[in-house]
TrEMBL record:
<feature type="domain" description="UBC core">
    <location>
        <begin position="1"/>
        <end position="155"/>
    </location>
</feature>
<dbReference type="GO" id="GO:0005634">
    <property type="term" value="C:nucleus"/>
</dbReference>
<dbReference type="Pfam" id="PF00179">
    <property type="entry name" value="UQ_con"/>
</dbReference>
<dbReference type="InterPro" id="IPR016135">
    <property type="entry name" value="UBQ-conjugating_enzyme/RWD"/>
</dbReference>
<protein>
    <submittedName>
        <fullName>Putative ubiquitin-conjugating enzyme protein 17</fullName>
    </submittedName>
</protein>
<dbReference type="InterPro" id="IPR000608">
    <property type="entry name" value="UBC"/>
</dbReference>
<dbReference type="GO" id="GO:0043066">
    <property type="term" value="P:negative regulation of apoptotic process"/>
</dbReference>
<keyword id="KW-0833">Ubl conjugation pathway</keyword>
<dbReference type="GO" id="GO:0016740">
    <property type="term" value="F:transferase activity"/>
</dbReference>
<keyword id="KW-0808">Transferase</keyword>
<dbReference type="GO" id="GO:0004869">
    <property type="term" value="F:cysteine-type endopeptidase inhibitor activity"/>
</dbReference>
Length: 246
């Protein structure tokens, strides 16, 4: 696993093992570029039952803001990860877990099948709308909401209070990606302003999106971007001091 786990500038997977509990593992996946999860740090818990590998591990998604946010049709607010390889979703027999599956295979499946460019179409039945104007409109609106959720929960909150086992990894990640994160935040704010302007022409000045999707206020996005800049500025100062000491 150590020699094969994905590790690159765009997106990576990190694992942390509790030496006192060999049946538990923590996982951190960074969001790929060109997706609404870009630059975010997403946490999972993995539990290995006593009859593993004859049954799949149990995987729980933690980046939910205490059960308030659903980042993907495959990631539930209660932490459930819905994938065939976990036997939490009906799939073809060859997609399901078997004793020859590996942990690496599971983690790469989560990374490749969930953190995608257009997650709206991961919802069963929605794939039929991929080539329609309505589908593209709803997918874009969904992504804009996820862009903000990623900034708020997978970036700002991770900067503010990173989990201890991944603290150094997370701070280094944002140190190296800080310029990209700032550009990402500015784009999110620009999208919010444009949607607000379009809404004002439709006598709906306060909302980013139509009633077909969950609403998000421009003020909320601006507050998130302000918090992001605060934490990035603080990170730059502390990391800069560390480099001077070295």
């Amino acid at each position: 696993l150590e020699n094969n786990i994905p590790l690159n500038e765009s997106n990576s997977i990190f694992v942390c093992i509790d030496e006192s509990r060999c049946d538990l593992m923590k996982v951190l996946i960074t969001g790929p570029d060109q997706t609404p999860y870009q630059n975010g740090c997403f946490e999972f818990d993995v539990f290995f039952p006593a009859n593993y590998p004859f049954v799949p591990p149990k995987m729980t998604f933690l980046t939910t803001n205490s059960g308030e946010v659903r980042f993907n049709p495959n990631l539930y607010q209660d932490g459930k990860v819905c994938l065939s390889i976990l036997n939490t979703w009906e799939g073809r027999p060859e997609e399901k877990w078997n004793p020859y599956c590996s942990l690496l295979q599971l983690l790469v499946s989560v990374q490749a099948l969930i953190f995608v460019k257009e997650p709206y179409f991961n919802e069963p039945g929605f794939e039929k709308y991929i080539c329609t104007d309505k589908g593209q409109h709803l997918s874009k609106s969904y992504n804009q909401q996820l862009n903000h959720a990623t900034l708020q929960l997978a970036i700002v909150e991770q900067l503010r209070k990173p989990p201890e086992c991944f603290k150094d990894i997370i701070l280094r990640h944002f140190w190296f990606k800080k310029d990209s994160v700032r550009q990402q935040a500015q784009q999110c704010l620009n999208d919010a302003m444009q949607n607000c302007a379009r809404g004002s022409r439709n006598e709906d000045r306060k909302l980013l999106y139509s009633s077909e999707t969950e609403t998000l206020s421009l003020k909320t996005v601006a507050t998130t971007v302000e918090a992001l800049n605060f934490h990035l500025n603080r990170l730059e100062k502390t990391r800069g001091l560390c480099e001077e000491d070295e």
